[in-house]
Design brief:
- The chain contains 5 helices and 11 strands.
- It is of the alpha/beta class.
- It has a single domain, classed as 3-Layer(aba) Sandwich (Rossmann fold), CATH 3.40.50.1580.
- α1 packs parallel to α4 and α2 crosses α5.
Length: 263
């Protein structure tokens, strides 16, 4: 089938602001793994067609440990998506990664326990390389974009993905810091590695909302909501500037991730 959109955005429900994304079509997609989190919106974003998927569903009703990640990635692949820009909210594990900062992630640590992590449960066995789990080309475009916008950001960051839906204990938060993780969240895994198995280029830009509980920094709900709103505005700015940089041709490792992964 002709691609509905070659670039997809995965994010929170508030990201698909109708003032920013002009929806052209909604796709109700079935997959061998069940339904994705929500209908996929094909939208016009400043003249570029993008697919938008609300990770937590309409109205933010799906907790992170119950997201059907395999269905989400399979559905995007089935409509012709070749690149995914993912956005997520995270807690900071470092003093210098402040609320309101953006982080262009380059590594992750998987601390989840009960998730479906692969499309290949047998009989075909596939071992993808995850040494560098994010698309290098898209990371470069994201870094150039955020730097040009003057948004406080970090060019690298290691994301520790926890099972959720609870937040970390103080002991766990200190452990994540000792593991040299920079931010903590609940949604990156297995989303990123499934995209690599599907040979889709993938990056994740994390928005820091607060310090995790290792820090004695009381944060109110009002503070977090204000920070999330500011981060949401920054996400729209990042997309406006980054999407025109995305090239048609793919010369990165992502497009041929399965070439030497099958046994």
């Amino acid at each position: 089938m002709e691609a509905k959109a070659k670039v997809a955005v995965i994010g929170g429900t508030g990201l698909a602001d109708p003032k920013v994304f002009r929806t052209l079509e909604e796709l109700d997609v079935d997959t061998p793994y069940g339904k994705p989190s929500d209908k996929i919106k094909i939208a016009d974003f400043n003249g570029t067609h993008v697919a938008f998927l609300a990770r937590h569903g309409a109205g933010h009703t799906i907790p992170p440990h119950k997201i059907n990640y395999r269905a989400n990635i399979h559905a995007l692949k089935s409509i012709g998506v070749e690149r995914i820009i993912s956005f997520s909210a995270v807690g900071s594990l470092r003093e210098d990664m402040k609320p309101g900062d953006a982080v262009v992630l380059d590594q992750f640590i998987d601390m989840t326990r009960h998730r479906q992590l692969t499309f290949y449960d047998g009989p075909k066995v596939v071992h993808i390389s995850a040494a560098d789990p994010f698309c290098p080309d898209m990371r470069r475009w994201a870094i150039e974009t955020v730097k040009g916008l003057g948004i406080p950001f970090h060019e690298k960051g290691t994301y520790v993905c926890i099972e959720g839906p609870r937040f970390s204990t103080r002991a766990e938060s200190l452990l994540w810091r000792n593991m040299h993780a920079d931010v903590v969240g609940m949604t990156l895994v297995p989303e990123a590695q499934l995209a690599r198995e599907a040979e889709i280029c993938y990056i994740s830009v994390a928005s820091v909302t607060d310090y995790d509980v290792w820090a004695e920094k009381p944060v109110s709900a009002a503070d977090i909501i204000q920070t999330m709103k500011r981060n949401e505005d920054n996400v729209h700015r990042i997309l406006s500037e980054m999407l025109p940089k995305v090239k048609e041709e793919r010369a990165c490792i992502c497009a041929s991730a399965l070439k030497e992964a099958e046994l």
